[in-house]
Design brief:
Helix content is about 15%, strand content about 45%. The protein is of the alpha+beta class and about 375 residues long. It has three domains: about 1-115, Roll (DNA Polymerase III, Chain A, domain 2); about 125-245, Roll (DNA Polymerase III, Chain A, domain 2); about 250-375, DNA Polymerase III, subunit A, domain 2 (DNA Polymerase III, Chain A, domain 2), CATH 3.10.150.
Length: about 375
């Protein structure tokens, strides 16, 4: 095997699959990157049975072949090479890398022992790339980071007719976003539970893709999902188990709500939370015309801030964790935010707040993204 190509293209091609490698591979061979050169193209891929990533770029091929070398080491070298071009050649079980005045030799690993990359041929459907990236960024913060309950460490994907809905929860909040879905499969309804860290990485690595094709495979015991866009592909095994039916927690209508300028509210939350200890809540007192935020902390620290508010319905006093509220505001991503107050059967006890975006103070709220927040929301 021998080929040459632009150094920047080489560094980007290596960096894409290596970004999906785990920090510590279960076996050295699973920390490798596979290079395959033929027909004027070089394919760079990784696979460790949990995730795979692959990209193909053009190169000047002098001799076809393939080689498996340490992935992270190759990525580090690729980013440091001094020349404009890079030449790679497999000689006596060593990959020789030359660029400018620099050269490296990497030992090749037994490529015949490397697992086969999953085949992504039957496309389930596709979405607009920018919509998918936005939706992942909106719901990802609500996914649980604790492995005690694995099913809620994922982002739940569900298709119905022409809508793909992404949902995440950590038992304290639920984030949900629907985007347009073009179905390519005979079945119109599909479900997949994708590890949150994986789908978040996918959204970053495929951020420039105009269209993202999605493959959902559930054949036998092995279930996986694939994402294809911009000449790149990523696969991940799915999380097994039943996702909690959190969509039923969202009320159809709420008559008691407040509309607030998002920038003003975010500034007030940042100011008042200065004195609040980590994981503690800020008190919000909603009355006609304004909301007053109050935070208290150690050493008798106390802060208050008032913000103009358009309130519809009764006055409300509620406590919310600042970091969770910020995630909701960021997800709504609009000039104004609607905070709706749901009712409970217990007098004086507020229910979850429903956060959504609103384009102006008086317009109807945008329900494509919904964020339900209250501590211990899903605990039984």
């Amino acid at each position: 095997m021998r080929f040459s190509m632009n150094r920047e293209v080489f560094a980007e091609a290596v960096g894409f699959p290596v970004a999906m490698l785990p920090a510590r591979a279960a076996q050295p061979i699973l920390g490798g990157i596979l290079l395959e050169a033929h027909d004027g193209n070089v394919t760079f891929s990784i696979f460790n049975f949990e995730v795979s990533a692959k990209t193909t770029v053009q190169a000047e091929i002098n001799e076809s072949g393939r080689v498996l070398v340490a992935g992270r080491l190759l990525a580090t070298i690729a980013n440091k090479l001094p020349g404009d071009t890079v030449e790679l050649e497999l000689v006596a079980n060593q990959l020789q890398i030359s660029s400018g005045a620099a050269s490296f030799n990497l030992p090749a690993m037994p490529v015949e022992e490397y697992p086969a990359i999953p085949d992504l041929t039957e496309i389930t459907g596709e979405v607009r790339g920018s919509d998918f990236v936005t939706a992942v960024n909106q719901v990802f913060p609500a996914a649980s980071s604790e492995d005690v309950t694995p099913v809620i460490t994922g982002v739940h994907l569900k298709t119905k007719e022409n809508v793909l809905t992404l949902t995440a929860t950590d038992r304290y909040r639920v984030a949900m976003r629907g985007i347009d879905w073009e179905n390519h499969d005979a079945e119109t309804e599909h479900e997949a539970l994708v590890p949150a860290k994986v789908i978040h990485e996918v959204s970053k690595l495929l951020a420039k893709a105009e269209t993202i094709k999605i493959v959902i495979q559930k054949n036998g015991d092995r279930q996986l999902i694939g994402f294809i866009g911009d000449g790149r592909s990523i696969t991940s095994t799915l999380i097994s188990g039943n996702y909690p039916p959190v969509e039923r927690l969202f009320p159809e209508t709420v008559e008691n709500f407040a509309v607030i300028n998002t920038g003003d509210l975010r500034q007030a939350v940042d100011l008042v939370s200065i004195v609040v200890e980590q994981h503690a809540a800020v008190r919000f007192n909603f009355v006609d015309g304004q909301v007053t935020l109050e935070g208290t902390g150690g050493e008798a620290g106390r802060a208050t801030q008032s913000v103009d508010t358009h309130l519809v319905g009764d006055d409300v006093v509620i406590s919310l964790r600042p970091s969770f509220l910020r995630d909701g505001l960021n997800g709504a991503n609009s000039e104004f935010t609607r905070i709706a107050f749901t009712a409970t059967s217990v007098p004086g006890k507020p229910g979850p707040v429903l956060i959504s975006g609103q384009r102006s103070k008086d317009s109807a709220d945008d329900t494509s993204f919904r964020y339900l927040l209250q501590p211990n929301l899903l605990q039984r």
